[in-house]
């Protein structure tokens, strides 16, 4: 059992903060950051083990980073916060170089971007196992993956999707083939030209739309445009909290065109060998993270304006994974 006074230390390392262009937590959070294991937590001891937790710089990643920090702190770890690292490549390099010890990564990102594999694997378990095996050569170990799969999808307003009887992208493609006027899309700038974006999905599902039926938006603006009726169909990511807040219908990618982006904790192999307790401590979080859960947590931040630290703490308290002294 960890010592009763164990808590989440926010001792950011100045040199690392400068290198990684921004640390996450600041000292002005008036929150009860000292935590103990909850009744559902795995009893494993990390007392006084210094662990640097990193994350990328978007809401979902920052929340997951803080969830991880609370769990490790409850087990007694001396946690250093380096969430909110700008850019996937920077966070990856921080893990490889030892500036951080653990972060959560996405299978599709690793496979395509880091491991330079051109063809994603449609089955999520097979994709995970392929990434895990390949990344061992880089001195990294992937723990088990979560159900949470932050991949691309098309979304529609629920009344429109229900009226047209659209639940899958195959059904969407058929509607567009019969009535091209139904195929008005709101897309982000990058998505419109990527092979794993709009050109590829049109080819995979056998439909096409004229240029006038495509409206281009900056990152994130698609959601409000879709909700406001500027288009019938929008490009979204499946775990974004705005899907829930705006009551959007996620259209199933039934041919699994888009890569799988299941998330999993990734730890340097040597660090995990020194501290094998990390695997069972993080497993309850792996088991609880799915798309619906992350939509709710992200919506609290992006829609309601809550702080990610508070959102992470409240979730773990509700799940019985931590308690307050």
TrEMBL record:
PROSITE patterns: PROKAR_LIPOPROTEIN
InterPro entries according to UniProt: ABC_Gly_betaine_transp_sub-bd (IPR007210)
Cellular component aspect of the GO annotation: ATP-binding cassette (ABC) transporter complex
Keywords assigned by UniProt, alphabetized: Signal
Leader sequence residues: 1-21
Coiled coil: none
Record protein name field: L-proline glycine betaine binding ABC transporter protein ProX
Organism: Actinokineospora spheciospongiae
């Amino acid at each position: 059992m960890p010592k009763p006074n164990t808590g989440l230390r926010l001792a950011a390392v100045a040199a690392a903060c400068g290198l990684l262009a921004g640390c996450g937590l600041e000292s002005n959070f008036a929150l009860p950051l000292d935590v103990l294991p909850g009744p559902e937590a795995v009893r494993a001891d990390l007392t006084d083990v210094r662990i640097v937790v990193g994350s990328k710089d978007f809401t979902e990643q920052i929340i997951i980073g803080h969830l991880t920090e609370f769990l490790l702190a409850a087990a007694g770890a001396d946690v250093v916060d380096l969430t909110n690292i700008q850019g996937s490549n920077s966070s990856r390099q921080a893990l490889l170089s030892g500036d951080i010890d653990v972060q959560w990564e996405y299978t599709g990102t690793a496979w395509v971007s880091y491991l330079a594999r051109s063809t994603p694997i449609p089955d999520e378990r097979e994709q995970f196992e392929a990434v895990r095996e390949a990344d061992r050569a880089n001195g990294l170990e992937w723990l088990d993956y979560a159900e949470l799969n932050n991949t691309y999808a098309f979304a529609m307003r629920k009344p429109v999707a229900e009226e047209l009887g659209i639940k899958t992208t195959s059904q969407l493609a058929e509607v567009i083939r019969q009535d091209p006027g139904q195929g008005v899309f709101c897309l982000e700038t990058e998505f419109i030209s990527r092979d794993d974006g709009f050109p590829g999905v049109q080819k995979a599902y056998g439909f096409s739309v004229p240029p006038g039926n495509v409206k281009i938006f900056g990152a994130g603006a698609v959601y409000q445009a879709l909700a406001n009726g500027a288009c019938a169909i929008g490009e979204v990511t499946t775990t974004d909290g705005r899907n829930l807040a705006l009551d959007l219908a996620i259209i199933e990618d039934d041919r699994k065109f888009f890569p799988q982006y299941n998330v999993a904790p990734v730890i340097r192999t040597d660090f995990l060998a020194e501290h094998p307790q990390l695997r069972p401590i993080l497993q309850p979080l792996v088991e609880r993270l799915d798309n619906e859960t992350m939509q709710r947590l992200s919506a609290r931040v992006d829609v309601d304006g809550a702080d990610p630290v508070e959102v992470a703490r409240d979730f773990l308290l509700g799940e019985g994974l931590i308690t307050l002294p």
